Structures are given as structure tokens and as C-alpha cells.
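Final report, section 2: Outcomes. Of the targets proposed, Pentapeptide repeat-containing protein is the one most frequently requested by collaborating groups, and we therefore present its record in full.
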Amino acid sequence: MFLFRIDPFFELWRTGNCPACELFQAELTFKNLKGANFEHSEIVDGDLRGANLENANLDGISLWGTNLSGANLKNSDFELAKIMLSNFSNTNLEGSLFKETSIDKTNFQNANLKNADLRGAYFLGGNNFQNANLEGTNLIITKLKYADLRGVNLSGANLQHTDLTGANLSGANLSGANLDNPILTDANFENTNLRGASFKGVNWKGVQLRGAIMPDGTIHP
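The predicted structure is given below as C-alpha cells.
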């Protein structure tokens, strides 16, 4: 009796779904994969630039060296995913779910993460969020150690108990954000807008605040 293994690329192109697939150097640029199921799949060195993955199920996916720049990932589900050395620059991730996701050395520059849910996500280091939009994003208990958050829009975001050790938030907008009980060791808030933000239980020791607009509207010397 012969057992035939279905080619994952064939299955993907035939159905638009590929749960638990192993895809190496997949060429999926600008492909319409709206609502596709990639649950627990692994994509290595993939090219998904400009792809439409709105409402896609990427729960538990592993992404290694994959390029998703300019892709539409609105309301996509990355819960419990593992992401390393990947490119999400200029992507639309509005309303997406990254709960308890592990992310390392990944580029989110100029990405739209408005109202995304990143609760408990673990950014291991070397992650670039320069000029990204994280307005209203849920970052409770998220680890953003040494993240590059320069020029980021975090207005109205929830960063309660977030670990921002060594993070660079210079020039960022955190107006109206909730930063109660954060870890801010060696964080950089120079020229940051903190107007109306909540900082209950904060320890400012070692935090760089030169030129920052403080919660009460005064400018730190």
C-alpha cells in the first residue's frame, strides 16, 4: 500500500490553506490569502511582500527570516507564534493578535499596529518599531527590552507592568497612555510626549527624560 504525501505548496495554491505546513523559501508575493489557515506552520525565508493575509489564522506559526513588508495582516492571529529575523515593515497589523508571542530581531518599522493585542508578548531584543503606529495597543505585561521605539505613536496604549528595560522611546507619543507599574531601567524618554499619561508606581531612577513633556504638561529640563 502506497501513501502519498500532499505537497504543501500544491495544497496552499489549491485551497489557500496550509495548516501545519513546512514552507521553505515560499514565493507568495501579493497573493490573496485572506482568511487563510497557517496554524502551527513553519515558514523559513519566505517572501510574502504585499500579500493579503487579513483575518488569517497564524496561531502558533514559526517565521524565520520571512519578509512580509507591505502585507495586509489586519485582524490576523499570531497568538503563541515564534518570529525571528523577519520583516514586518509597512505592514497593516491593525487589530491583530500577538498574545504571548515570542519575537526576536524583527523589523516593524512604519507598521500599523493600531488596537493590536500584544499582551504577554516577549520581544527578546533587537526589534525595530521606529515610527510605527501602536495607538490604543494592549501591551500589558509585554517585554520590550532594548526595543527601538523611536518616534512611535503609543497614544492611549496600555503598558501596565510592561518591561521597557533599555528601550529607546525618544520622540515617541505616549499621550494618554497607561504606564502604571512599568520597568523603566535605563529607558530613554528624551523629547517624548507623556502628556496625560498615567505612571503610578513608576521608578524614574536612571530614566532619560531630557526635553520630555511630562504628564502634567511641564517640560523636563
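The chain has two domains: 18-96, 129-221.
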